[in-house]
Fold:
Amino acid sequence: MTRVLLVDDDLELCEMLAEYLTVEGFAVDTAHDGEAGAARASQGGYDVVVLDVMLPRLNGFEALRRIRQSSPVPVLMLTAKGDEVDRIVGLEMGADDYLPKPCNPRELVARLRAILRRTGAEHGDGGGDGLLQAGGVSLRPASRTAQWRDEPLDLTSTEYNLLEVLVREAGRVVTKAELSEQALGRRLARYDRSIDMHVSKLRRKLGVGPDGRSPIQTVRGVGYQLITE
Structure:
């Protein structure tokens, strides 16, 4: 059974979401402050974490920072409705997705399942076997590990998803809409900057090739391309 950690100090909301998720087949644990949530998430054993931004003792951003120091577990952040700054900050710090509050439980389930499909966690499927290589990047889908010029990359699940799509389509321009559907599991919404933020972080981790260029090139107004030369 897929294990979810729900971190929110709204006890009534937590109870409602936990009940809904349980009916949908998830095993749910809860924590009600950022410090407890970060500690439990970092201990492992969870397939995905739902993390509110506004938390006592430790806010959601600091909790996310602590989680990312020791765990690549996918994290979906709950942000204030219409607060784009929180979304951008969360994505920059390694969140995999976000959902504005108050959220529709059905949409939360859909987002979680989309994340889990990408990580292979929902059914214990680690992806296909074999090695994928392009433009100095090497990926092993079975273990979801990545290397850049023989050096290991420490990627979040969403960063890995994006890189795998780009590697599989190396040399071709992949639109933002395609990346959103294949890596995030949802359609690209108007003014949604999630893809741009994740690609920006991915570029920083990759650095540059021998020619001084990033291996991921922007095609203005269209999307991104992994260069192979």
About this structure: Residues 105-119 form the longest helix (15 residues).
